[in-house]
Every structure is written in C-alpha cells, then in structure tokens.
Amino acid sequence: MLFPEYRGRRLRATANFRRMIRETKLSRDDLILPLFAVEGKSVKKPINSMPGQFQLSCDHIVATAKQAKDAGIPGIMLFGIPDKKDCLGTQAYAHDGIVQKAISAVKEQVPDLTVITDVCLCEYTDHGHCGMVMDDGTVDNDSTLDLLAKTALSHVQAGADMVAPSDMMDGRVAEIRGTLDDEGFSHVPIMSYAVKYASAFYGPFREAAESAPQFGNRKTYQMDPANSLEAIREATMDIQEGADIIMVKPALSYLDIIYRVREEIDLPVAAYNVSGEYSIIKAAEMMGWVDGKAMIMEALLSIKRAGADIIMTYSAIDVARELNS
C-alpha cells in the first residue's frame, strides 16, 4: 500500500484510535521489583549510584513489599547483604541469613506477594566472586554447585516461592532442581539467569549489593557481549536441566537477544532492566535533560515488545502506579 491510498495518520489521530490498535501493552503483571536486604532495624540506606533505591532492613523490606502489592505488582526479587563475609559465602545458605529472614518477614506480612530470591554467592564471599575460588584465583565450577543448591534450599525452606540462580556456573540448574526435588520441593519453580552477559551495566548494582570482585573479573563465567548463538545454547541447556523461566540480563542493550530467545524457546522469558540502565535514566532526569518518567515507560515497553513476559526493574512501583493512573 502506498500514499495516498494508505494514510497511517488516520489511525494515529486520536488517543482512542491509538489505544485500539496498540500492538504491545505493558502491564503491572509484567513487573518484578528487586530489593536489597540488610541486617538491623529501621535501616534505609541510600544507594548513591542508584537514586531512589536503598539498602533496607527487614522492616523496610516488608513496608516496600506492601507498597508493591498495593500497586498491583505480583512479586519481588530479594538480594542479601550480610554483616560478615567469608571465602565460602556461608551466610548465603545460613538458616538465619539476611535473605532467609527477609523472606520469612515478607511471607508473614504480605503472604499473597510472590517472593523470588537471587541465588548466588558474590554478595556473601569476601573475594566477591560467584563461586569457590581456588589457590590460583580461578573459580571452581563443580565445587560451587553444592553451595548454590544449599542456598536455594535454604531460601525455599524459609518460604521463597521461586529461586533464581544468577551465578552462571555450568550445571547449577540441574543441581538445584535435584536438591529441591529430593527435599520435597518439586513444586517450586526455577527462574534461571540463563543468558547473563559480562556487562558494564552492572556497576551500580555492585555498590548496592557490595559484591564487586576483589580481583579479576567475571568474564570466565558470564557471557561475552559479542555472542548471540551462545545465548540459545545456554538457554537450551538450562531448560534441559529443569529451568521453568529463562532470563536475559541486561535488557536494553540485548533486545535482539530477548527477541531471539523468545523466538526459539517456548518457556516464559524474563529480562532484567539492570542497575546501569536504571541509573543512566535517573541521572539524566536529575540533570533536567530528559523526561525520566516517559523514558522509563518507553524503555520497558521496548523490552516487552522484544518478547519479555516478565521484567525485573527498579522502577516497578513507579511504573505500576503510572499504569494504574
């Protein structure tokens, strides 16, 4: 069809026309809110590189969880920052660990809210890596698997509704699935960070979670940003090992990967609108350079349009309230 027979502006002329033919719709149901839990009471510590975000003690975690539920958000993702760290990340799987306490507090006060937990060791190890480190400084994949499974099990025993391994160790989904099944938790789903790139966009998160590597980097276990075929291999492997949801992280610089994963797998696809993506918009908004509210809505819509069913975003409450209005 060519002009003048086709006039695209006819169906853009009014707000109602635009609503009627809108192809992609962002919903509150798509959103998950990440939160950072710390020890103590009445703690609400601002995260300098993530304006509007905080490290929260359990009482504030509960209060924020209530806000999320009231806004219509179906779930939260919990990350933990312990008081003490060691080489084995023992607080990750301690029954009285910070995430375990936060899970229990939320499920007691906001039982209908879905609680998802990040399963990794980087926040809990004194070296900041996502697994056990050998004497030569390499991360030992296979020795890490048992610790990850213990961590996931402790989260589920505390009341978590879903676990999300983010470590990128080979074989961890199968190890976690087997452990949960053996302990009577075959009903608990796994959302795997299956396609997680070694990205520069994680910088603010590492301040928030106090999880920056003390030496080296994570390029030996997180994916090379240049690769896309590898994304399908990683997603396929995790599906075969028992993953229920496949996550792509980051989101905005990897919309092509989200689209490709969506086209090639038939499980739900999640995408993480990560800290750097959030902070870039917030910083520009604070400088008065952009309309931050409009920009985040457009960014999340692009993630949805690329094929994501679920979006992890620090803007979840603000976005849900905007959608409600």
Give a short overview:
The protein is α/β, with parallel strands linked by helices. The chain has eleven helices and twelve strands. α3 runs parallel beside α4 and α4 packs across α5.
Structural class: alpha/beta
Tell me the total number of β-strands.
12
Note the run of SSEs as H and E: HEEEHEHEEEHEHEHHEHEHHEH
Given the C-alpha coordinates, what overall shape results?
globular
CATH superfamily: Aldolase class I
Whole-number mean pLDDT: 95
In angstroms, what separates the terminal alpha carbons? 37 Å
Q: So what's the CATH class?
A: Alpha Beta
Describe the largest sheet.
Answer: 10 strands, mixed
| CATH level-3 fold name | TIM Barrel
Helix count from the secondary structure assignment: 11
Number of domains: 1
- Estimated share of beta-strand residues: 15-25%
Low-confidence stretches: none
CATH architectural category: Alpha-Beta Barrel
Helix content: 25-40%
Rg over alpha carbons: 20 Å
Binding site for 5-aminolevulinate 2: 275, 314
InterPro entries: ALAD, ALAD_AS, Aldolase_TIM
Binding site for 5-aminolevulinate 1: 206, 218
Enzyme class: lyase
Give short descriptive properties of this protein.
zinc; ten-stranded mixed sheet; porphobilinogen synthase activity; alpha/beta; 11 helices; 17% strand; TIM Barrel; metal-binding
Break the fold down into its secondary structure elements and pairings.
Blueprint: H1 15-20, E1 31-38, E2 44-46, E3 54-56, H2 58-71, E4 75-81, H3 98-109, E5 114-119, E6 132-133, E7 139-140, H4 141-158, E8 162-165, H5 172-182, E9 191-196, H6 203-208, H7 229-241, E10 245-249, H8 255-264, E11 269-273, H9 275-286, H10 292-306, E12 310-313, H11 316-324
Parallel strand pairs: 1-3, 1-4, 1-12, 4-5, 5-8, 9-10, 10-11, 11-12
Antiparallel strand pairs: 2-3, 6-7
